[in-house]
Amino acid sequence: MNKLITEFIGTFFLVLTIGCTVVPGAEGVIAPLAIGSALMIMIYAGGHISGAHYNPGVTLAVWMRGRCETKDVVPYIAAQIAGAFVAALVVGFLYGSGEALKIESTPKAFVAEALFSFAIAYVVLNVATAKRNANNSFYGLAIGFTVVVGAFAVGGVSGGAFNSAVALGAAKMGLVGFADIWIHIAANLVAGALAATVFKIANPDDR
Questions:
Q1: What CATH architecture is 2-202?
Q2: Is residue 165 a contact partner of residue 16, using CB atoms and an 8 Å limit?
């Protein structure tokens, strides 16, 4: 249960930060930096308990890599979705609903989401699960700033969720159209699986 509580809390504060910066329309670099920083601090806070996935695509990647028990996969994802949903309710109470990004091109949005979902899962596997990087102190910073980079690079193309739970929370907050959620979910899970496959090919001796 402690792992699920940790996944809930981490995802909650990630989505809460997204909503509290994006819905009111924070200007300039505030939203990407705040979102990446929120993920970073929650990873440092919960990494020793649950692995601090906070992202179904990451959970899939870590499971495929062999560092997440099969019995934990569905409960982890459920906790992440629950955290995102509750955060969206809080944002709605504080700020109301946002304005949904109009996705101009489904293929472009899918590619954008897949690329940085892959980057996040790939970074997680290499900095938080690889034997050669065991017990490092930079894992949270590396993962958090991967989100910052993705938000700056392609946020305007896809909304920059890179996370199925975030996409669901964003839809609840009015930031993503419900009809477009499948793009984020499919890209996130496909990219997570691909990241795990690439990691295992590149690190054949890291079991």
A1: Up-down Bundle (1.20)
A2: no
**Among the listed residues 104, 24, 14, 20, the one whose alpha carbon sits nearest the alpha carbon of residue 56:** 14
- What is the C-alpha separation between 64 and 70, in angstroms, rounded? 9
Enter the pTM of the model. Answer: 0.95
pLDDT in tens, 114-130: 999 999 999 999 999 99
Helices 106-124 and 181-202, axial angle in degrees (round to 10): 40
Quick check: 150 and 125 in contact, CB under 8 A?
Answer: no
Structure tokens, 96? 């109301």
pLDDT digits 0-9 by tens, 129-160: 999 998 899 999 999 999 999 999 999 999 99
Q: Would you kindly state where each structural domain of the chain is located, as residue ranges? A: 2-202
